[in-house]
């Protein structure tokens, strides 16, 4: 009986890991949320979201903010591309020591699995994919630190552009 319970717990834990998609987000900022929700999250991180509608296509808007109260106490910059008032692409950037970059990459690798690595002169990019989302961590040297850019793309939100306005 004891073995059956343990086996059931192991199977349930494995099933939960398979059905719960990995959350590809940075400081709670993620694509797929409304502009209103993005604005609220940015405000909690000490920023003010400023958005401009596209002149070429009324479905699009570009937003930006500086985040002064992030959990890691860094000043992050945010850019987001909205499609029909939903964040489709979220990009955050900051400068950090190489050791902090390695810890960030290792934490995501532990959570999301081994990333695809892309190396170009002076830039390393690590990419994870999960359920219609892609997270890319890119870094290049900036003196003693690394300039880091993290983008999260929601393909479902981008697919809305395929439909006629």
Explain what the structure shows.
The protein has 165 residues and is an alpha+beta fold. It has one domain. Helices cover 29% and strands 39% of the residues. The chain contains four helices and eight strands, in the order ααββββαββββα. It has an eight-stranded antiparallel β-sheet. β5 (116-120) and β6 (123-130) form a beta hairpin. The longest helix is centred in the first third of the chain and has 18 residues, at 2-19.
**Alpha-beta classification:** alpha+beta
Order of helices and strands: HHEEEEHEEEEH
Shape: globular
Count every helix, treating DSSP H or I runs of 4 or more residues as helices: 4
- As for the number of domains, it is 1
Q: Report Rg.
A: 18 Å
Strand order of the largest sheet: 1-2-3-4-8-7-6-5
How would you state the average pLDDT, rounded?
Answer: 85
Low-pLDDT ranges: 1-21
Largest sheet: 8 strands, antiparallel
Helix fraction, binned, reads 25-40%
Number of beta-strand segments: 8
Beginning-to-end CA distance, first to last residue: 60 Å
Strand content: 35-45%
Which terms summarize this structure?
single chain, 165 residues, alpha+beta, eight-stranded antiparallel β-sheet, 29% helix, 39% strand, disordered N terminus
What's this, in brief?
The chain has 165 residues and is of the alpha+beta class.
Q: How is the secondary structure organized here?
A:
Blueprint: H1 2-19, H2 35-44, E1 50-53, E2 60-67, E3 76-83, E4 86-97, H3 98-112, E5 116-120, E6 123-130, E7 133-142, E8 145-154, H4 155-159
């Amino acid at each position: 009986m004891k073995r059956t319970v343990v086996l059931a717990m192991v199977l349930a834990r494995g099933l939960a890991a398979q059905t719960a998609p990995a959350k590809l987000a940075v400081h709670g900022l993620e694509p797929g949320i409304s502009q209103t929700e993005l604005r609220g999250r940015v405000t909690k991180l000490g920023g003010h979201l400023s958005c401009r509608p596209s002149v070429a296509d009324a479905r699009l808007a570009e937003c930006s903010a500086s985040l002064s109260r992030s959990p890691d106490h860094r000043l992050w910059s945010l850019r987001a591309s909205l499609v029909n008032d939903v964040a489709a692409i979220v990009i955050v950037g900051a400068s950090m020591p190489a050791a902090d970059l390695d810890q960030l990459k290792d934490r995501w690798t532990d959570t999301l699995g081994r990333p695809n690595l892309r190396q170009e002169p002076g830039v390393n990019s690590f990419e994870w994919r999960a359920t219609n989302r892609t997270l890319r961590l890119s870094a290049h040297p900036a003196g003693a630190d690394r300039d880091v850019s993290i983008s999260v793309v929601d393909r479902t939100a981008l697919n809305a552009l395929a439909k006629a306005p």
